[in-house]
Amino acid sequence: MATQLIGLLEDRRAVIGVLGMGYVGQPLALRYAELGYKVIGFDIDAEKVADLNAGRSHIEHISDADIRRANAAGLECTTDFSRAAEADALILCVPTPLNKYREPDLSYVINTTESIVPYLRAGQVVSLESTTYPGTTEEELLPRVTAGGLTVGQDIFLVYSPEREDPGNAHFTTHTIPKVVGGHTPVCLEVGKALYRKAIDQIVPVSSTKVAELTKLLENIHRAVNIGLVNEMKIVADRMGIDIFEVIDAAATKPFGFTAYYPGPGLGGHCIPIDPFYLTWKAREYGLHTRFIELSGEVNRAMPEYVVGKVTKALNDRFKSLKGSRLLVLGIAYKKNVDDMRESPAVEVMELLRAAGAEVAYSDPHVPVFPKMREHHFDLASVALTPQAVASYDAVVLTTDHAKFDYEMVRTHAQVIIDSRGVYRTAADNIVKA
Length: 434
Prior knowledge:
Shape: globular
Structural class: alpha/beta
CATH architecture of the largest domain: 3-Layer(aba) Sandwich
Number of strands: 13
Number of domains: 2
CATH class of the largest domain: Alpha Beta
Order of helices and strands: HEHEHHEEHEHEEHEHHHHHEHEHEHEE
Oligomer: single chain
């Protein structure tokens, strides 16, 4: 069975099913379609499915032309999960958020898996790409995949291969980012390598799904811990009257032993704000407390409140209160030059400002209308960034440093700017660093 499936994958005769057509699933589906595979994209959002089938992209860095080319090459999207039976490979690319208690929410993974279980058959490979804690593939997917009598490693094959997408990064694409692959059995690993070998330039095989799961967490916890460090350093430097960005730039001249990380208003994106909590939660099962990781998470989670505190002080220094002030938040995507709003710290800043009684607006060329989000709601559209508009607000809160902003115009016309990204390196009376 494995030999036959590997042959289909190698010859590009296999049908690839991608479950979850978001920031991870969509580029992957396009890559397989580009290579000549028949691709079925599954999603529960009927509107998104209709748009994709009509050649309309809902992700900024993927064009309508990209979707149309993929459709012409054989990409078809559907909300009908019974069609999972048609696929030789089923790749799960669904969200793994945290619940209100900051604990892992695997409902998307579990619900998606259960939606395909009735249609699983011998000769398929199931690969989970969603970020999660070590043991998820074995504990959650394995019993469901085998519930119908299929044997993993003989009839059906189970793989974990963490996504490594970086939306908006022009230096790396889906196929140039090395792919870590772990299988539940050695045969599963061989099938997993065959699944990704044609689509990805470099495959990095590891000994188990748990190793692959922990690899993904380490990558992002490494960043979260270092960002937590530099965010704490920012607070100390600010109290001492030192520009932390000047310090980082100077330290970065050392050609060894130092990697520059930059502070901001908090962590954003689907992985970095979430991954540390996945590991700390799982570690408690083993009687361990990951104090270092948890502390960095606390520091990073406190950054939106730190920014709001800076806004409050800046207004107070100008004989204004936060309550009733008109504030313009500059940039609300989680990082520069993308439209990705997942876990954006700018949204929490907006919510804190609104809760304090401020009138909040935003300007973001990548997010023309505030999107539907699971936990946040603002009935707002992006404000055109003109001198008159900038001057009309009591303060501008810079939370995402998009390249499209005219920063000199903003500096010239803003009453006060609270800069959480270090855009303005030269001191000015209307610049407050946060």
